[in-house]
Design a protein that fits this description.
By secondary structure, this protein is mainly α. It is about 65% helix and about 0% strand. It is built from 12 helices and no strands.
Length: about 270
């Protein structure tokens, strides 16, 4: 399920995101019990606990003890609410990283904290990156990442592509874990049980597997991870190790680009 942000009214969404729209609390008369912040918090709680499919204006209203119609005074609709939710949870990410130990340390911290953020709010992974929300917290997080990358000394056109590369990698790695958890919840079958059952069948339907796929078999046997925390599903352990190794390879690649740019000198490549 892919959800596209920015489907609400552009003017009203942007005004709510940047808090330039007059709030109901600022209007004359009795002060309302509800607020934009309360509505957004309730919506985030629903999405965190039950997933994006459970999110609706009615569900948010019920959580707050109000009708869906009561919410529209503060938030025009679900499209605007989704934008506000997305930008709200992005406020959890740091807006600055210490670059004194070097850009590699800072980027590692960014990647690990962003990975953990996605797993706290897996519904965020369903929001397409094709159309950003353009909210203040989204920009603050991007500014923090750009400041780290800027210390590499690489030219802006290279840094722009690296930003996309890093986000794709971290989102993709986190999505594997998020979907694994969702699969277990939706089917009632754990990853370990699923793999055990399918692997057992594979031996029966493909007795010549070793002869047909010798390189794959060698990779599976010689490259298998060491036993880890048995309380963590196998796929999650594999995904975390893949994330760690992959991040190291990406950072090594950035270092190569930095070294090459330094060797070329100003005005080159």
């Amino acid at each position: 399920m892919v959800v596209f942000a920015g489907q609400g009214d552009a003017r009203r969404s942007m005004a709510l995101l940047w808090r330039t729209a007059p709030s109901a609390a600022s209007r004359p008369g009795p002060k309302p019990v509800l607020s934009v912040d309360a509505i957004v918090e309730a919506a985030v709680d629903i999405a965190d606990a039950e997933g994006m499919a459970a999110l609706s204006m009615r569900a948010v209203g019920e959580r707050l003890g109000r009708t869906a119609m009561a919410l529209y005074t503060h938030v025009p609709g679900k499209g605007e609410l989704l934008d506000l939710m997305y930008d709200r949870v992005l406020a959890e990410l740091p807006t600055a990283y210490d670059t004194d130990p070097g850009w590699r340390v800072a980027l590692t911290a960014w990647a690990e904290q962003t990975w953990a953020f996605y797993l706290r709010h897996p519904w965020v992974l369903q929001i397409s990156q094709a159309r950003p929300v353009l909210g203040p917290n989204e920009y603050a997080g991007m500014e923090a990442l750009v400041r780290v990358l800027d210390t590499t000394g690489l030219p802006p056109h290279v840094l722009r592509r690296m930003i996309g590369m890093l986000f794709h990698f971290v989102r993709g790695a986190a999505q594997t874990v998020a979907e694994s958890r969702q699969a277990a919840a939706a089917t009632g079958v754990t990853d370990d049980a699923w793999w055990f059952a399918r692997s057992a069948q594979l031996r029966d339907v493909a007795p010549d597997f070793a002869e047909r796929f010798p390189t794959l078999l060698r990779l599976e046997t010689e490259g298998a991870s060491a036993p880890g925390d048995e309380d963590v599903p196998y796929l999650e352990r594999e995904a975390k190790e893949t994330f760690t190794v992959g991040l190291g390879v990406l950072l090594d690649g950035i270092q190569v680009a930095v070294d090459r740019a330094a060797a070329d000198g100003p005005g080159e490549g």
